[in-house]
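Page 42, continued from yesterday. The earlier attempt failed because a stray header line got pasted into the input along with the sequence. Redoing it now with the clean sequence only.
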Amino acid sequence: MARRKAARYALGLAATVAACLAGPLPQAAAGTPVAMRVTCELPLGQGTHTGEQVVTLDAPAEPVRPGDKVRIRVTLGPSFATSPIALPGTPLTPSIEVVLSGGATGTVRLFGPQTLVDIPGHPDPIVVPPYEGELTVPIEARGDIALAPGRMVTNTTVLGVQTTTCTPDAPAAVSTVVAVAADAPLTAPEGQAAPPADPRAPRTAVPAPPPVTEAPLLGTATATAEPTGPEPSSATLKAENRSSSDGDDGMSGATVFGIAAGALVLLMAVVTMLMSWRRHTDDD
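This time it went through. Structure tokens are written below.
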């Protein structure tokens, strides 16, 4: 009996030591609730009020790459602000600014969808339902990105669109972390240019590919056509037709007229000579 107890104790001790050597278990993706003091500007002449607001940001547990889009879940605790009357079925659109630190810095605003909310009357607090917003991991991210809640803007449709803005009085603590894969290649999202290459990296000359020429299809013959001039106009065709017709007759009209005139002149000369000779004969 004592040997069995000793064996169980040894196995338990070995399991404990193994767990310590293996390190802590990986944390879940659930974020840490952050309580922050905010100042809210309320609509419909309610003025400005200050109180505590609890915000929880949840990020995916799997590592992502720069340029990827992730869904961030936003959970808000009850608001210290109240409504003077109950407003059932009120259209409400929430949004929150998320402050980035660590692998990337800046501010990103997440928008939730419009939902119908039953707003209770005073003194019951107003609770905004949890919602998800889309976050694009910056392309220049170099490591895990910590997310902290920031300014919150909520629009409600009551006698028009009413806006409630709650601003933290001081920077809030980190609620969750987006794990960024260290060995993942940078991928630029749609509509965004990729980051410039490192000027210190060595450059290698890449030969340009030879020009692509289209080969003739198999089974067809190809020939180079002689260059052709512009088609002759109608005036050119008429002139050519007239010249060809004149060539077929042998002589033009001007040539015939010249021969006839010459013959007439010659005939008149002969007649004149005959008349002169006759007169000379009569005188003798």
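Notes: The longest strand covers residues 87-102.
Reminder to self: strip header lines before submitting.
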